[in-house]
UniProtKB/TrEMBL annotation:
The lineage of its organism: Eukaryota, Metazoa, Ecdysozoa, Arthropoda, Crustacea. Keywords: NADP, Oxidoreductase. This is Uncharacterized protein. InterPro entries: Fungal_SecMetab_SDRs, NAD(P)-bd_dom_sf, SDR_fam. Belongs to the short-chain dehydrogenases/reductases (SDR) family. It comes from the Eukaryota. One of its GO terms (molecular function) is oxidoreductase activity. GO terms for cellular component: cytoplasm.
Amino acid sequence: MKTVLITGSSRGIGLGLVKEYVKNGYKVVATCRDPETASDLKSTLAETNQPSAIALDVASDDSIFKAAEEVSKIVDSIDILINNAGVAAKNHPNDPAIGVDREDALRVYSTNVIGPLKVTEAFLPLLRKGNEKKVVNISSSSGSIAGATPSFVITTYCASKAALNMVTRYQAFELKDLIVVAIEPGWVNTDMGRSDCLGTPPLSISGAGRKLLRTISNLKESDSSWFLSINGDRYSF
Ligand code: NDP
C-alpha cells in the first residue's frame, strides 16, 4: 500500500486530497495544525480506518520535527509528500508593494516558503525509504513572474509562491534521488479561493483533488524541478 503525507489537511484542497487518496487505496498520513478541531478530517479518517491526524504547524520547526517523530512510529516509509498548507496575507487580495506589512509578510513566507523546505527536510528519511520518492509543493499560477499583471496586485502571496517555485528547483537539484515539483492547483472553491473576490472559483475541491492525484501519479523523473499546471504541463516561471 502506498503512503501519502499531506500538510494543511483540515479543510480546502488538503482535505480534498485526503479524501481522494483514501478513495484510491492509499494509506494517508493527514497532518494539520489542530487535529482536535478538524471535524470533517477526523470523521473521514475514522470512517476509513486511516491513522488519526497528526499535529503539524508548518510555521514551527519544533512542531514539524515532533510530527516527523510521531509519523515514524506509525509508518515505515512515505511515498509522496504533499506540501499543501498555505496562507494569504491579511489584506489579500489587495496587497500593493508599497505598504506591505513586514510581520504579516514574514508569517506568509514562513508558512508558504520555509514550511515546505523544513517539512521536506524532516520527512526526508521516510521519503527515501518509499518507492515513489515524490515531493509536491502546492504553488499557484500567481507565483509565475511571467504571468504577473498590474490588474492583480497581491504582492506578498504572489512573491511567496514565486519563491516556492525557486525553492522547488533547489530542492530538486539537491535531492537527485527524488522527484520534486511545484504544481498550481487551478482556481479552487475553498476559503482561500473565494477570498480572491473575483467571483466563484470554477474548480470544486473534489475536482481539484482528482486532477492533482492523476498528475502526481503520472510524474516522471524529467518533471523534477519544474513548475507544472494541474494537468502536468510545464507552467511558465
Ligand atoms: P484554505 O485557506 O482553504 O486552506 C488552507 C489550509 O492550510 C488549511 O488546512 C489551513 O489550516 C492550512 N494551514 C495554514 N497555515 C498552516 C500552518 N502554519 N501549518 C499547517 N497548516 C496550515 O486554502 P486552499 O485549500 O485553497 O489552499 C491550499 C493550497 O493551495 C495553499 O498552498 C494555497 O496557496 C494553494 N492554492 C490555492 C488556490 C485556490 O484557488 N484555492 C489557487 C492556487 C494555490 P487551518 O485550518 O489550521 O487554518
